[in-house]
Amino acid sequence: MRHNGERWRAPYATDPATTRGRLIPEPSSPTRSDFQRDRDRIIHSSAFRRLKHKTQVFVHHEGDHYRTRLTHTLEVSQIARALARALGLDEDLAEALALSHDLGHTCFGHTGEDALDALMAEHGGFDHNAQALRIVTRLERRYAGFDGLNLAWETLEGLVKHNGPLLEPDGTPTLRWAARGIPAAILEYDGLNSLELARFAGPEAQVAALADDIAYDSHDLDDGLRAGLFDLADLEAVPFLAEILAEIDGLHPGLDPSRKIHELARRVITRFVEDVIAEGGRRIAALAPGDVAAIRAASAPVIAFSPAIAAADAAIKTFLFARMYRHPGVLAVRAKADIIVADLFSRFTAEPGAMPDEWSAGLEGAGEGRVARRVADYIAGMTDTYAVLAHRRLFPTTPDLHWSPESKGLPLAEP
């Protein structure tokens, strides 16, 4: 039986008909599954719209064709849907998780997150996954009956655990969280509505996590090449990419650089997607899960890259880290953006009334930790543009974030 226009799902997929429900019960929709409703609520949220003017790597106004958080999120969503359909998973849940995975990111890309994490060190730090959970459970204030979006349990579980469990079976934090501890926002919600932090998330969340990696690798290569941060010849240092470039040269000798870049990006996506489908199929066959609970109880991810593609993914990320994320021009912009975030945090914590009324309300006499968290919530929600304008309003001088890397004559779009 198919309901509400849904596609076929395998027995091990997450079935909206058996959802664990919402924290605040709501009547079912006659036309949409719970996961379709979650997807729609995410798309209509204020936090989702703000992704349009939040940076991936480059400051957004330096080139209209470079990715933003929004365009990245849409690319992740399409890859996640393709993977989910091929593996018989619930496409709507995979899409909802892909659309929500970056909601907690700050202005100025990872610079903003790193800056806020340092500034909040004495108050629990800052983590974009925990912030996404705060947004969808508390900070969005649109609905008459509740704060947040009141998403289904499976969507919240995937949002928090798409990169794997946060706790070991014995209840201690996993390696990633051993030093700093699980973010308070996650523990607080888990105490209210357990997300089973020691178990893997469902397969749709695992698909969304891999779709994120695939999109990052392909579009950062694309953006970095078109920005002139490195050349096609430089990619020969990565065997996986060298093989693809040789294939393109064999099929299309003399292809102009712009088209060659596009061919590279699309072939990277294709190879990664086909690998996930094949490796996921092998792991599912080996586990033979009868339902989604078997996937959550597994000792390793069921949806994953093969060892060869995992190595290629790691090699691409190593290359991009050295040649793109640590490029002197990118680092110079990051340093200036860091100043803006630090200045705003300092001013607002010292003078909460400098924030809009809806953010400063109720902070009279509040403790330092509560004020700092409110300020972090406010700054994290800012777009790049808004943060710059706020700084100009409050400070006599604002760092100039303009930086236009050499495009080396590569057209970003058709004339």
Describe the structure.
It is built from 18 helices and no strands. It has 415 residues and is an all-alpha fold. The protein is globular and about 65 Å long.
List the helices and strands and how they pair.
Layout: H1 34-43, H2 46-50, H3 69-87, H4 91-100, H5 109-119, H6 128-139, H7 153-161, H8 175-178, H9 184-192, H10 203-227, H11 239-251, H12 257-287, H13 292-296, H14 307-325, H15 328-350, H16 357-360, H17 368-381, H18 384-394
Detail the poorly predicted runs.
407-415
Could you tell me the mean pLDDT?
92
Q: Beta-strand level of the residues, as a percent range?
A: under 5%
Find the structural class using helix and strand composition. mainly alpha
* SSE arrangement, N to C: HHHHHHHHHHHHHHHHHH
The general outline is globular
Quick one: how many beta strands?
Answer: 0
Taking the alpha carbons of the first and last residues, their distance comes to: 49 Å
Helix content estimate? 55-70%
Rg calculated over all Cα atoms: 22 Å
Q: Largest sheet at a glance?
A: none
Total count of helical runs of at least 4 residues: 18
Task: Give a short synopsis of this structure.
With 415 residues, the protein is mainly alpha-helical. 56% of the residues lie in helices and 0% in strands. It is globular and about 65 Å long.
Descriptive labels:
mainly alpha, about 425 residues, globular
